[in-house]
Amino acid sequence: MWRWGNLLLAFLAELVALGxxxxxxxxxxxxxxxxxxxxxxxxxxxxxxxxxxxAPTATRTTxxxxxxxxxxxxxxxxxxxxxxxxxxxxxxxxxxxxxxxLIIHVQKLEP
Length: 111
Known about the structure:
There is one protein chain. The chain is an all-alpha fold and 111 residues long. It is 81% helix and 0% strand.
């Protein structure tokens, strides 16, 4: 139960990060076209990079690349929330993600 709970939390954090990128893109885009491009494009780019380098099923990656992508994606999601005027949510998100990743790493819960 502990293992699957932490892995589920990690998956939900990934989805939340993609949602934050969409929210940031929509809020910072000027015209409607730019808003749509950013709101769809940023999460799509992040998901592709994640799938190629950080996903548990990524085959052509290294531990350093996997951790770099995780830190960048979650860190940028936290920075995006902060820039949108939600500093408490940003800090809370980053802290929850960091604790979750630490638990997964220390207890070797990777699938």
